[in-house]
Specification:
52% of the residues lie in helices and 13% in strands. It is an alpha/beta fold. Strands 2-1-3-4 form a 4-stranded parallel beta sheet, sandwiched between helices. Strands 6-5-7-8 form a 4-stranded parallel beta sheet, with helices on both faces. The protein has 3 domains: 41 residues; 181 residues, Rossmann fold, CATH 3.40.50; 131 residues, Rossmann fold (3-Layer(aba) Sandwich), CATH 3.40.50.1400. The two termini are 56 Å apart.
Length: 385
């Protein structure tokens, strides 16, 4: 506009057009702007489309139900740098390690990671598959695929890990992109604990609340004694032991610091709930089985008895022991290397005859049926379409 005005004045100064014409042009422009402004502010805005005007897309129908199936996570590779990255993210979580953050940051980065990353990388290399990679990621993917097949076309299933890849953020984005306006979060932790289910659900809510358009989110509650879950565990035990029952059954769960339990974490009660339900399904007497804990970390008191002490102590008097790990939904470092390799070696060295290590549920069909039932039940309770 400024350029036009300068041009008109230059033409008038050189006598090309009269000044009166310049004045008329300015008056015309001003009148046009005034009319346009009046029309803009006085005219009513166009009506918003009503529901009947909108095509019945997935978005307006509510879309499919999203299922965010989640697990702990895994390094990207069995190498020291990859394991260090994973452990730093995992052990930096305030719900996993509940100590002073400044002190813990120093201990983690100066003491723990330089020592633990290399040792953990060697352990991961023992269980890492050349084709499928991380066993936990592989079996979590298999579980996700089988669950999607079991649930059918009304659902979209996406896998996310609390630490590492694929992340919970990536999984959530996949479901939103698929126009899932309602999402059911399914943690692969049958027993609730703050460092597992708690941090998983908190992270999901953090991601959801950061979005402009927020889907409706619900969480599958803990399921330590779900009938199909327990039936799947019993099936795995029968498959592993065959026709010859062991001399003793050991139900091993991931350990937890005693301080967390004193802070009202319900984990121990829910582990016991699973143990008793499984013992009942196997028709065991109380003296035939024991509940123990594994994978402790650090020097503070953890839940006992310890798996790596309990089993070798029985070796001389109990030659055949079966170990099942009901809290691990997918085979991983703890089931395959800690128990399948190291504990087996210690048991044999202590004079044991046979240590039967029961595989995790992985993609067992009854387990998949259990998960599908939990999702459908959560959907029904919240009146999802």
């Amino acid at each position: 506009m400024i350029g036009v005005g300068r041009g008109l004045r230059a033409l008038a100064d050189h006598g090309v057009i009269p000044w009166a014409l310049v004045g008329g042009i300015y008056v015309g422009i001003g009148a046009g702007l005034a009319v346009a402004s009046l029309v803009y502010f006085v005219s009513p805005p166009p009506p918003l489309p009503t529901r009947s005007d909108v095509a019945p897309t997935l978005a307006t129908r509510g879309g499919p139900i999203g299922v965010l199936i989640s697990n702990l996570g895994t390094p990207d590779a069995p190498t020291t740098p990859a394991v260090r990255r994973y452990l730093r993210e995992f052990l930096s979580d305030e719900r996993v390690v509940e100590v002073n953050r400044w002190l813990w940051a120093f201990v983690l980065n100066v003491i723990i990671l330089p020592r633990r990353a290399a040792a953990s990388a060697r352990a991961y290399s023992v269980v890492w598959d050349e084709k499928t990679g991380s066993p936990l990621l592989h079996w979590s993917r298999q579980t996700s695929t089988a669950l999607a097949r079991e649930l059918g076309d009304d659902y979209v299933v996406s896998l996310g890990m609390r630490y590492g890849a694929p992340s919970l953020e990536t999984a959530l984005e996949e479901l939103v992109t698929a126009r899932c306006r309602t999402i059911i979060v399914l943690p692969l932790y049958p027993q609730y604990s703050n460092p597992t289910t708690g941090t998983n659900n908190a992270k999901v809510m953090e991601l959801v609340m950061a979005r402009r358009e927020q889907p409706t989110v619900s969480f599958v509650p803990p399921y330590p004694d779900d009938a199909l879950y327990v039936a799947a565990l019993a099936d795995r035990v029968h498959e592993a032991m065959g026709d010859r029952p062991p001399d003793h059954y050991v139900f091993s769960f991931h350990g937890l610091p005693e301080a967390y339990v004193r802070a009202s974490d319900p984990y121990v009660e829910q582990c016991a709930c699973t143990a008793w339900a499984l013992a009942s399904a196997l028709e065991l007497e109380r003296d035939q089985w024991e509940m123990v804990f594994q994978s402790r970390f650090g020097d503070e008191p953890w839940l006992q008895p310890f798996l790596d002490e309990y089993v070798p102590e029985l070796a001389s008097s109990t030659p055949r022991i079966l170990v099942t790990m009901p809290g691990f939904a997918a085979d991983c470092l703890e089931t395959l290397e800690e128990v399948g390799v190291r504990l087996r070696e210690r048991f044999a060295a202590a004079g044991g005859e046979e240590l039967i290590v029961v595989p995790a549920l992985n993609d067992h069909p009854v387990w998949i049926e259990s998960l599908a039932g939990l999702v459908r039940e959560t959907r029904a309770q919240h009146a999802y379409r």
